[in-house]
Amino acid sequence: MYFAFLASAEIIPFDYFGSPKSKTISVDDFKSSMKTGYLVGFSFAKILAKEMYIILVSFIYGYARNVMQYKDRLATIESQRQQELIDQQRIENELVTAKLQTLKYQINPHFLFNSLNFLYAQSIPLSENLSRATMLLSEIMRYGLQQNDEAKVSLENEIKHLENFVEFNRLRFSNRLQISFEIEGSTSFRRIMPLLLITFVENAFKYGELHDASNPLKIYQKIDSKTLYFKVKNKKRNGPKENSTGIGLSNIKNRLDLAYPENHTLEIIDEEQFFTTKLEIQL
User: d(Cα 127, Cα 119) in Å, to the nearest integer?
Assistant: First the structure.
């Protein structure tokens, strides 16, 4: 219908300045132009449709991939959350166990110290050495149990603990042990990691020959304004040695690394006949 209308009319085209042209276009030429335009438009439509299809597919693929990644992140977060809950439960269980163990430690020493006090009182009229040894043992154990949880303790108390340990062992062996214990400098107002120095002395008592007067156990300590020097040297024992408690020099190395990471040096000299430890700490 539209083309029939065009067939009965003359088309007066306009130039690009808007003025009517004198030349007219025939209906056949117009139909040909319209057909060409239609074909061109159809071709563009097909191309655009194809491009839109590709864009749509890409969008759907990208959206699906983002959804899968989001689900994966959610699954990872949920897995981490479950692991955190498991770890939290484990920590809580360990805390409960530690608290129960602490209660046991609080009960057992109470009974132990009461027993030691009873033995001390009963031994006074029987033997001076026995009563003295009982009192020293009580003080040694009390210090070990009370100071073990503190980060730093008085150096003066730590040295007193060493002196009690040495005296107790002298009484054990009827004062036949050959021990040189020397301290230089003031221990007042200084603090140190608890139960540190005693380990080196215990090691000497376990593995050293302490009955040789020409080679006594030497315990030397010097304190200046900033530094503690501590040295233990003993002759090695050839015969039987005391059993180890499992807390040795390797444990002390770990404790020193934690408490004095850049402020200590530990030298261990293991010779054929002698064993020496030298410790230097910046207080």
Answer: 11
